[in-house]
Amino acid sequence: GAGVSQTPSNKVTEKGKYVELRCDPISGHTALYWYRQSLGQGPEFLIYFQGTGAADDSGLPNDRFFAVRPEGSVSTLKIQRTERGDSAVYLCASSLGGTGGGKNIQYFGAGTRLSVL
Amino acid sequence: DQQVKQNSPSLSVQEGRISILNCDYTNSMFDYFLWYKKYPAEGPTFLISISSIKDKNEDGRFTVFLNKSAKHLSLHIVPSQPGDSAVYFCAASARGYSGGGADGLTFGKGTHLIIQP
User: Fold this and answer.
1) Could you say which of B43, B100, B104 has the minimum Cβ distance to residue A45?
2) How confident is the model at residue A104 (pLDDT cuts 50, 70, 90)?
């Protein structure tokens, strides 16, 4: 079956520009997550959606970062006024959601590599 | 403040032998732990998980051990195979098993496992 799909796979932009990164989760998964992975680090949690609403956005680094999931499926991570320090791989994951360990196994996409020049 | 620590950046093991990857955590609220495997240019792939009510979980060549009192877990791979060469991430969740919902995972920095022929 189809896994988590992220587009684009690579994005190069200039400092100060606006970017949008898209995530298409596994069909039927109600929970969706965004992470950021810098070189030599593990993925760092940004935001988590349960359905259409952001259940936890405590990982967003500042107000330049925003994410939406208007219909409870596809999600878009938006970064305004990009800075060189935003360069990283942005990973999206989805899970079934709900109680029970198996429902909270997160399945990851291949990521979008963002380079801010 | 790193809540999940993988203190070995790399580990080299001979093919056919046992690989042991270690992970320590500091947050007593973590109740669900996962191991992910990552190849270059791909997203993390779920490997095996364990809830805090267990001390061992086995799946084929992979076994995860949890020592709650020591806040330590380990992943054993036996026998090690060339395809096991990858970066392994330990991750933890504070509500992932019994807390009524999923949440963002906290990852370690990863251990690069190299299987020597």
Assistant:
1) B104
2) confident
